[in-house]
Amino acid sequence: MKFGTKAIHAGVEPDPSTGAIMTPIYQTSTYVQESPAKHKGYAYARGANPTRNALQKSIAALEGGNFGLCFSSGMGATDAVIKLLNPGDEVITSNDLYGGSYRMFTKVYERFGIKFHFIDLSNAKNAESYINEKTKLFWIETPSNPLMRIIDIEACVKLAKKNNCLVAVDNTFASPYLQNPLALGADIVMHSVTKYLGGHSDVIMGALVTNNEKIHQDLAFIANSCGAVPGPQDSFLVLRGIKTLHLRMERHCFNGKKIAEYLKNHPKVGKVYWPGFADHPNHEIAKRQMKDFGGMFSFTLKNDSLEKATQLMESVELFSLAESLGGVESLINHPASMTHASIPKEERLKNGLSDSLIRLSVGVEDIEDLIADLDQALAKV
After folding, report:
1. Domains assigned to the chain
2. Which of 32, 174, 296, 316 has fewest C-beta within 10 Å?
3. How confident is the model at residue 343 (pLDDT cuts 50, 70, 90)?
4. Which 3 state secondary structure label does DSSP give 137?
5. Burial class of residue 214, CB neighbours in 10 A (0-12, 13-18, 19+)
6. Catalytic residue set
7. Does the reported pTM lie above 0.90?
């Protein structure tokens, strides 16, 4: 079954009682049981809900996985993966990743004795000197947020498996349409469903997908025990959003390419970080493990001043200055003060994230209007 067909049909069956083509919103907290512990697969909605189950099957199918779980947010999903570990365990992760992940790793889980190594994973061999008998997990984000660094998933998997480590990939920026980490050997895929999967900036949700039944059972136990699960209304909204994922991603990629090229050739723009450029680091790896290059990228102005960058972000009209990404509307973002403010400035600068960096999430509007908006804003800088 092709991707677009999966997006519309996977996990979704007509309602058996009415024939409704859309999965109903099962707005209930509990379920009547025929006899103690004898029920129809549902006892209490924290553990399972039919609307959520349909969504979990849909997302798993899109990632080519056997098991899917949804959480109340992307951070809730990430939290569940780290809860697979024990005090004393070590994690290898990238030095360029979402600020919320960095905050959780350093401010929450380091207090519980889990050690994180933030290194440049653009070359998987850089991890070799950090691996020891305590290393249990590789946490990979590719393309990375916000510098669009590309990590070779297969190379990391090969290194991890040689040392009995799990590999989890944050696939949010690519979406299942562009990249499928399980097919490259990863054990777990994480999505901030809030972004491309939902696609309409109206839901907060996360998801995990795996092919490993034991990992799925452990994650499901954590989800039920700790309770970071989404409600049926949000599950319904994402099921609806997923039906157009393939169509939206085609437009995100088309618009992203046009705007990346426009910015690269603009006299006031400095560096553009977009994996579709032949000179982008690990471009060939991106070509190999991604279907296309997406609608996310970052850039700096040629004079590289925070004042000018702020002026630009305040001058756009169609691009909305806001956090998040992956919706149908175009967003402009200042990582240093918004999505990555939780990372200390010295760490941001050391890893190449300047205070003047601007991040774009290109939506599905008409490309001529988006370029015209950037053109008028750049003219004011």
Report:
1. 3-242 (3.40.640.10), 245-379 (3.90.1150.10)
2. 32
3. confident
4. strand
5. exposed
6. 46, 98, 170, 195
7. yes
